[in-house]
């Protein structure tokens, strides 16, 4: 909950973490940050597609042989 | 109350009075620079939008010179100096070293910036930001930049001196926080950058006085070691701000200290070589030199960005999950504080910087691909996504925290502040993407009139270009509205804002960095 004119991180800062919080954290097959892992894979796919498309474009204007 | 420092009620940190005043002064100058750069941005935009074509050639290139130097050098460096003071003084609970020297440096930076601006606005330095030799500006233009750089160098050295003071006086325990470590990486890159700046601007100043010759190819090589490396100071500072905003807004954890710190070291070691990608079509350098620098060394710096691009959102996710937001893959995203402009700025900065700026930059920095992208609008399309959507967006997000913490005012026009990051980032996203697409049709960068109306030859672009550049202009105007709102909010808050009642942010467990610690739960 943010107060008018003051960001939430100051009015209602994130509570300190304890060892109990870490003990309760479920661990799946994708590690402690599975959502980020998915986002990173999307990023890598976008990167690969854009990079390949540029080499393809280059092949149109720079023919070999 | 101690006259030399105060205790921050939100963080419990000791805020050195001189550091506070210096931070405020640099932040105000950064905002002034942003205003000047923003006005010229609109003028340039309305000229490149062929349907409007507002300015004539002289004022177009003049505005472009002002825009480049004011945004990329003055705005960014003034803000970064404020970040250096914050991360060395308050964040380490320390006084700053040699505050009088800080004021001398600030005066040098202001005088240098004003001198440079004056020369450009009066038509004595229509040389664009790069000022390639043999384009000759008035000597005071070069002198202004030299003074500004000397001021920035003094602040950087003062930063290192403050680290020594803090260590000697034992104001913190263990290693410096990751955020300070990142700022130190930015400071080291700044020293390298400013050294190259001196190496090229001093001879060029003497050349402008007719005292010596400067080789144009050598100028380009050394200048880009300043011109590009200065943007790498931004990257290191921006990433530090990402970690800081994550900690402040959602209590993100540091996934792995060693990985994050190693990534900062990679920046220091390899990022300067990336400057070579500006010279990929220059005939004076061989392909081996170009490829080694841009396709080997540069990728080590890219690796660093990709590491941060993983650890920052992963730290946010883990911080959220540790606080109970464990529903599904993206429950932590849905439950995030999207109405906090600090948080939304962080996310938008990471996403646009990575997905648009990062991907396009690595691709067009490849030697072979560069041949179809060099000097087209794809280049500014890339760096507007990095410097503006990335760095400036992150700095804007931090401002919403600095106003209450440092200026001790409430953020004015709060509903607008909550909306501002979305307007700015959304506008810049449209602008960058459509600028890049226009560049894909070989539309040149910097050019005043792509219809070549009075040229002795004709060149027609695909009609699609008109549509792409029209959408680009609309995106740019949307971003300008977002930028204007930011300036309105900051100026109003600082000079006419409601004073903060410190009880509103005082907490029993006042501590900082909140959540900025390595988590035992992280298994990376």
Describe this structure in words.
The complex is a heterodimer of chains A (65) and B (524). Chain A is mainly α. Chain A has one domain. Helices cover 58% and strands 0% of the residues of chain A. Chain A has three helices and no strands. The termini of chain A are far apart. Chain B has 15 helices and two strands. In chain B, helix 5 (178-208) runs antiparallel to helix 6 and helix 7 runs parallel beside helix 9 (287-322). The radius of gyration of chain B is 23 Å and the shape is globular. The two termini of chain B are 45 Å apart.
Record field, number of beta strands of chain A: 0
SSE run of chain B: EEHHHHHHHHHHHHHHH
Total helix count of chain B? 15
Q: How would the global form of chain A be characterised?
A: elongated
Structural class computed from helices and strand pairing of chain A: mainly alpha
Q: Which structural class do you get from the secondary structure elements of chain B?
A: mainly alpha
Helix content of chain A: 55-70%
Helix proportion of chain B: 55-70%
Q: Tell me the distance between the termini of chain A.
A: 65 Å
Query: Could you describe the largest sheet of chain B, including whether it forms a barrel?
Result: 2 strands, antiparallel
Q: How much of the sequence of chain B is in beta strands?
A: under 5%
Mean pLDDT of chain B: 93
Biggest pleated sheet of chain A: none
Oligomeric composition of the shown chains: heterodimer
Q: How many angstroms separate the termini of chain B?
A: 45 Å
Q: Rounded to an integer, what's the Rg of chain A over CA atoms? A: 23 Å
């Amino acid at each position: 909950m943010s107060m008018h004119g003051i960001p939430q991180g100051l009015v209602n800062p994130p509570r300190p973490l304890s060892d109990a919080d870490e003990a309760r954290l479920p661990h799946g097959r994708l590690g402690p940050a599975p959502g980020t892992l998915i986002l990173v894979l999307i990023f890598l796919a976008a990167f690969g597609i854009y990079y390949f498309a540029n080499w393809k474009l280059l092949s149109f204007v720079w023919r070999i042989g | 109350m101690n006259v030399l420092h105060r205790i921050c009620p939100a963080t419990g940190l000791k805020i050195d009075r001189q550091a506070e005043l210096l931070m405020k002064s640099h932040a105000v100058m950064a905002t002034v620079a942003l205003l000047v750069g923003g006005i010229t941005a609109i003028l340039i935009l309305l000229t490149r939008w062929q349907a409007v074509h507002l300015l004539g050639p002289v004022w177009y290139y003049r505005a472009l010179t002002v825009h480049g130097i004011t945004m990329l050098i003055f705005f960014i460096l003034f803000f970064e100096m404020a970040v250096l003071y914050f991360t060395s003084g308050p964040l380490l609970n320390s006084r700053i070293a040699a505050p009088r020297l800080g004021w001398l440096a600030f005066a040098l930076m202001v005088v240098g910036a004003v001198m440079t601006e004056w020369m450009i606005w009066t038509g004595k330095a229509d040389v664009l930001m790069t000022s390639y030799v043999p384009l000759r500006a008035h000597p005071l233009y070069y002198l202004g930049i030299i003074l500004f750089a000397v001021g920035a160098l003094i602040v950087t050295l003062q930063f290192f001196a403050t680290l020594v003071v803090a260590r000697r006086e034992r104001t913190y325990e263990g290693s410096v926080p990751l955020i300070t470590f990142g700022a130190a990486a930015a400071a080291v890159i700044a020293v390298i950058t400013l050294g190259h700046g001196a190496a090229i601007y001093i001879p060029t100043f003497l050349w402008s006085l007719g005292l010596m010759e400067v080789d144009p190819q050598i100028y380009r090589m050394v200048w880009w070691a300043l011109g590009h490396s200065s943007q790498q100071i931004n990257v290191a500072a921006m990433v530090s701000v990402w970690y800081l905003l994550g900690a402040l807004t959602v209590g993100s954890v540091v996934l792995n200290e060693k990985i994050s710190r190693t990534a900062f070291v990679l920046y220091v070691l390899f990022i300067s070589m990336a400057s070579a990608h500006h010279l990929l079509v220059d005939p004076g350098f061989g392909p081996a030199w170009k490829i080694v620098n841009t396709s080997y060394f540069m990728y080590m710096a890219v690796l660093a960005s990709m590491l941060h691009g993983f650890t920052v959102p992963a730290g946010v996710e883990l911080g959220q999950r540790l606080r109970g937001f464990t529903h599904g893959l993206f429950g932590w995203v849905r439950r995030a504080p999207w109405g906090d402009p600090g948080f939304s700025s962080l996310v938008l900065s990471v996403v646009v910087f990575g997905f648009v700026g990062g991907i396009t930059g690595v691709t067009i920095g490849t030697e072979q691909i560069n041949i179809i992208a060099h000097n087209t609008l794809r280049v500014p399309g890339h760096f507007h996504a990095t410097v503006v959507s990335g760095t400036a967006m992150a700095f804007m997000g931090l401002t919403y925290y600095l106003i209450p913490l440092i200026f001790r005012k409430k953020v004015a026009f709060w509903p607008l502040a909550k909306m501002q990051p979305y307007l700015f980032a959304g506008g810049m996203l449209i602008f960058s993407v459509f600028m890049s697409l226009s560049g894909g049709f070989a539309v040149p960068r910097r050019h005043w009139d792509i219809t070549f109306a009075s040229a002795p030859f004709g060149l027609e672009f695909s009609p699609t270009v008109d549509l792409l550049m029209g959408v680009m202009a609309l995106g740019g105007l949307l971003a300008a509205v977002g930028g204007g709102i930011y300036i309105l909010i900051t100026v109003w808050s600082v000079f006419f804002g409601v004073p903060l009642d410190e009880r509103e942010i005082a907490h029993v467990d006042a501590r900082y960095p909140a959540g900025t610690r390595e988590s035992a739960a992280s298994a990376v």
